[in-house]
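Q: Could you fold this chain for me?
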Amino acid sequence: MLQRPSPRLILASASASRRALLAAAGLTFEVWPADIDEASVKQQARSQGVSAERTALRLADLKAAAIALQQPEAMVIGADQILVCDEVWFDKPADAAAATEQLRALRGRTHILATAVACHRGAARQWKTVVSPRLTMRHFSDRFLIEYLAFEADAVTTTVGGYRLEGLGVHLFSTVEGDHSAVLGLPLLPLLSFLRDDGILVQ
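A: Sure. Below is the predicted structure, expressed as structure tokens.
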């Protein structure tokens, strides 16, 4: 077996993409989404001049810490992602109309996805990492955008960018720089390396 029976692994996130990445890597884990007021944390960070990278890490820490206090024997994985384009922070679009506006704002421009992961056990953080893939959207037509949103209507509100790079969202881009798994919300190779170093996975 690649994974030792203990400690248990818990993912403190409701993200389907993060669940899929861990499952595809063959990990056994539980899902315990953490209830964090993300909007308040981001608002406070912006008012204090905190970077998107540090804010994403703060959110990842808060998520992992909240669940780790409830399940102190488990290794808890918290993660968060903030999209930044020309110093503007974007959140998950509320509906298709917001997704349309957001994708038009990102069209033809480069944005980063500040992606943070933190692992907690008990009251202590055991590991963290932050990476920032860079993605450039092509100058797609309004007709393409209408067709894209028609196909992806149920998915555009579930991701911070209004796109799923693992699906039809790949058609939005001209270049992607960085780890594919980090774009999807979880830098998998650094996380697996930590889990091996910590003895949770076999070396």
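A (continued): The mean pLDDT is 95.
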